[in-house]
C-alpha cells in the first residue's frame, strides 16, 4: 500500500493539512474494494483528484476511467449519455449508441456534480448500483455492467433530500464511504505552498521569471477567505504572473487581485425562510400603520377643534354644523375631545369575528351541495393585534413604559391606561 506522501507526489497534490492527509488515506484504503464512494466539498477544492487515486490503486486500473459532469449534460439527453440508446429511440437517433456505463464496463465511472441528476435518472442509477443492470433508451433488453461508481457533489445532500430533489435511497447507496475535502480557508498553511506551485507552473508556461511575494503579502494571501478555493487561487496566481511587470509582489499590489470580503446585501436572510413566504411581519406592519393612522386622525380632530375654539368664529361653526356633527358626533364636541375622552378614543375598533354557522338543512337537491365550506383562517381583530404589539414592545424594553410608548407612538399615560384596560 502506497503512503499518502507518495500518492501526493504522484498526483501533484500540494499541502500538508491533516484533513487533506486523512482524505488521501481514506482513498488509499478504500481503493482495493468495489464499494461506492461519495466525495463532498465546496466547489474548487479539488474533488476530481480523489477518484483518480481510487481508480489507479484499484484492481480496475487497467480498465477505463470515465469522468462525467452530470450538471453539464442536458436533462433530455442525460439518460442516453449514461445508458445509451437504440436507433430511432428519439428524433436524431440515427444509429444505436452505447452509453458511458457500457463503455466503462470493468472500470470506474466518476459522476461529478451527482446532485444535479434528474429524479428519473436517479431511479435508473439506483438500479445499476443495486443489481448492475440497466436498459438502453428505446430498448427492452436488460444489460449488465461491472462498474465501480465514485460520485462527487458540492450540494448539501441532506437539504436536497428534504426538498425532494434527491432520492434518499440513492444517497445511502452512493454514500457507503464519504470522503470530505476541507475548503481552502481551513487550510491556511497550504495557501502559500499552492500559490508558489501555480506561480512556478505559469512561469514555465509563459516563459518568464517566477513571481515572489513579500512577507506582508504572504500574510494577506493566507488571511483571505477564498470562496472559490483552489480554483480561485490558481486564477489569481495566473493574473499576477501575466499582468505584473515586477517579479516581487508586495501587499499593496496583491490586494488588487484578492477577492473582496465585503457584501452589499442590506440584510442576511436565513436559509429556512428564503424558500417560503411568510406574511406575519407584513400583517404586523399593516396593523401598526392602521393603529398610527387612527391616532393621527384623533389628533387632527382635536387640533381642528381647538383651532375653531380659539378663533371663536360662531359663523364658521354654524355654517359647518352638519360637517362637525358628522366628524365629531352629536354629543358636546368640547367634552368629547377633552384630554380624558381623547385617550378613550384611541381604543382600536373591534372587528367582530366571523362565527361558523351551521349549514341549513336542504330539502331540495342542490347541484352544488358538494361545495366545500371555507372557514376564515385568521380573524382580523385590531384590538387583539394592538394587545400583541403592546406586549412585544414591553418585552423588548423589559417592562419600561416610556420607551415602549415612544415605540408605539402614544403617550406614556395612554400606554398605562391600555395596560390596565387589557390587564397586561
Write the layout of secondary structure elements.
Blueprint: H1 4-10, H2 18-30, E1 37-40, H3 49-56, E2 65-69, H4 78-83, H5 100-103, E3 108-112, H6 119-131, E4 133-135, E5 142-144, E6 148-153, H7 157-162, H8 168-174, E7 177-180, H9 188-206, E8 212-213, H10 215-223, H11 229-243, E9 248-249, H12 251-255, H13 271-274, H14 280-311, H15 314-319, H16 321-328, H17 333-336, H18 339-344, H19 382-396, H20 401-408, H21 412-421
Parallel strand pairs: 1-6, 1-7, 2-3, 3-6, 8-9
Antiparallel strand pairs: 4-5
Helix pairs in contact: 1-2, 2-3, 6-8, 9-10, 9-11, 14-19, 19-20, 20-21
Report on the architecture of this protein.
This protein is of the alpha/beta class. It contains 21 helices and nine strands. The protein has helices at 4-10, 18-30, 49-56, 78-83, 100-103, 119-131, 157-162, 168-174, 188-206, 215-223, 229-243, 251-255, 271-274, 280-311, 314-319, 321-328, 333-336, 339-344, 382-396, 401-408, 412-421, and strands at residues 37-40, 65-69, 108-112, 133-135, 142-144, 148-153, 177-180, 212-213, 248-249. It has a five-stranded parallel β-sheet, covered by helices on one side. Helix 6 (119-131) crosses helix 8 and helix 20 (401-408) packs across helix 21 (412-421). The chain is elongated. 22% of the residues are buried.
